Automatic annotation (TrEMBL):
It comes from Paenibacillus albicereus. It comes from the Bacteria. SUPFAM superfamilies: UDP-Glycosyltransferase/glycogen phosphorylase. This is Glycosyltransferase. The lineage of its organism: Bacteria, Bacillati, Bacillota, Bacilli, Bacillales. Pfam families: Glycos_transf_1, MGDG_synth. Residues 230-352 form the Glycosyl transferase family domain.
Amino acid sequence: MRKKRVLLLSEGFGSGHTQAAYALAAGLRQLSPDVQTRVLELGKFLNPVLGPLIMSAYRKTVGKQPKLVGMMYRTNYKRSFNRFAQLAIHRIFYTQTEQVIQQLRPEIIVCTHPGPNAAVARLKRLGLDVPLYTLITDYDAHGTWASPEVNHYLVSTPVVKRKLMDRGIPSGRIEVTGIPVHPQFWQSQDQADARSGLGLRSLPTVLVMGGGWGLMEEEDEFFTYMTRWREEVQLIFCTGTNEKSRESMLADERFNHPNIQVLGFTREISKLMDAADLLVTKPGGMTCTEGMSKGIPMLFYKPIPGQEEENLDYFIGSGFGEMLQSTATIDRWFRLIQEPYSSGKRRQRLQSKSSQQYDPQECPSAVLRLMQ
């Protein structure tokens, strides 16, 4: 019997959309051996020359002009893609989408970015007979996610569900599933074992991340200040794909210490979160959901205006972290994690809170139920 095929379509504007697609794909395969998945960054796949240029331009805009990104997000917040916009998006970026779908013959399509979502919605309006599920990968519901052709929405929280309902989407077409994380994050490892397995020292440990694009050089004020604690605290900086940032940090003598590691891209984030006592991160939807699944306290820095601000509000309001306001915030938390009993109790409380609010298996389970 042929396996059920799930096509997951994303885009690389930030890493969270595609990470969510891969996480859902892995979760589906973990829960059901009868499911076959395929993840595509559709615009990049269809436009191998133009796609990376657009992503590079977007990345530079986020880094250099974040206020412009926020203004664009807020200006179009309530607007969905109308038929003209869908046509333009299809003609410019997604002209061969229908051929891809016909070739792969999926039972369902899951979109984790508004662009492919709009393209598939247009094809459905023109006669495509494949269910379309939309997975919103932040703790907000921008208008561009909404489309009458979507069969079902998978969202992070009841607040996001309410925002979609306010846009006229029936409650029965929206399910609160949380954002999926990779099965690696479904369970936590003992902290001492995680440190031992990663070759880390038995010290209070801080994991510093900047999302899939890594740490940006503009944020080095806080990071260099953290190195003042390098005798008492173990610091792990993950620069992701930002090799320039990694090279810059490695060339700085302040980061050359036995208790400091500067990592590039790594697939060990789950283990690193198990080993750490504190996560310092930008409030991207995926990274914060991974941190929540592990019950690790978080400090958030410099959110990109728009969805990251909404993510920030959610996680601070839910008690999973706070804003990194100043070096005084660093000093206070770096002292707190040196108290083993208090630090352990704090982690237990957050893990209990997380299990009450979030089931990491719910999103793939919901998709499997919808496929039946």
